[in-house]
């Protein structure tokens, strides 16, 4: 029973953090909202007994990558007057809600069709080091490397932009 309350609490916290990422105007506030989302997702992984994915989520994403992103945001020293005026923000938000409403309805139908607590949703060893390593480095090696290159390019681009500004 406590798992159900934890799940709904962490899911709500995750959604609220994602909304904060979209709604906050200043990049630092958005980044802090993103940290809340990443930490709540780590809690959801812990509820699934995915120990390795939980640790990776906390250490790599909520820790290392977000520290780099926050450092770059602070390095850029973005002031309120540097931010563009976004008059159509609420229009785009409403449009996104309208477009995502059918997807949310479909997801709710899928969740209702899931088996009850009598059947385990995960297999034995789910989220372990060996299982994740085999899948990651046998089936997903190229996408893994592409994502790491994309992150590197984004960080170098931010430093270059900061250098041109100063």
TrEMBL record:
<dbReference type="GO" id="GO:0048038">
    <property type="term" value="F:quinone binding"/>
</dbReference>
<dbReference type="Pfam" id="PF00499">
    <property type="entry name" value="Oxidored_q3"/>
</dbReference>
<feature type="transmembrane region" description="Helical">
    <location>
        <begin position="31"/>
        <end position="48"/>
    </location>
</feature>
<dbReference type="GO" id="GO:0008137">
    <property type="term" value="F:NADH dehydrogenase (ubiquinone) activity"/>
</dbReference>
<keyword id="KW-0520">NAD</keyword>
<feature type="transmembrane region" description="Helical">
    <location>
        <begin position="90"/>
        <end position="111"/>
    </location>
</feature>
<keyword id="KW-0874">Quinone</keyword>
<keyword id="KW-1003">Cell membrane</keyword>
<dbReference type="InterPro" id="IPR001457">
    <property type="entry name" value="NADH_UbQ/plastoQ_OxRdtase_su6"/>
</dbReference>
<keyword id="KW-0812">Transmembrane</keyword>
<feature type="transmembrane region" description="Helical">
    <location>
        <begin position="140"/>
        <end position="162"/>
    </location>
</feature>
<feature type="transmembrane region" description="Helical">
    <location>
        <begin position="6"/>
        <end position="24"/>
    </location>
</feature>
<keyword id="KW-1133">Transmembrane helix</keyword>
<keyword id="KW-0472">Membrane</keyword>
<comment type="similarity">
    <text>Belongs to the complex I subunit 6 family.</text>
</comment>
<dbReference type="InterPro" id="IPR042106">
    <property type="entry name" value="Nuo/plastoQ_OxRdtase_6_NuoJ"/>
</dbReference>
<feature type="transmembrane region" description="Helical">
    <location>
        <begin position="54"/>
        <end position="78"/>
    </location>
</feature>
<protein>
    <recommendedName>
        <fullName>NADH-quinone oxidoreductase subunit J</fullName>
        <ecNumber>7.1.1.-</ecNumber>
    </recommendedName>
</protein>
<comment type="function">
    <text>NDH-1 shuttles electrons from NADH, via FMN and iron-sulfur (Fe-S) centers, to quinones in the respiratory chain. Couples the redox reaction to proton translocation (for every two electrons transferred, four hydrogen ions are translocated across the cytoplasmic membrane), and thus conserves the redox energy in a proton gradient.</text>
</comment>
<dbReference type="GO" id="GO:0005886">
    <property type="term" value="C:plasma membrane"/>
</dbReference>
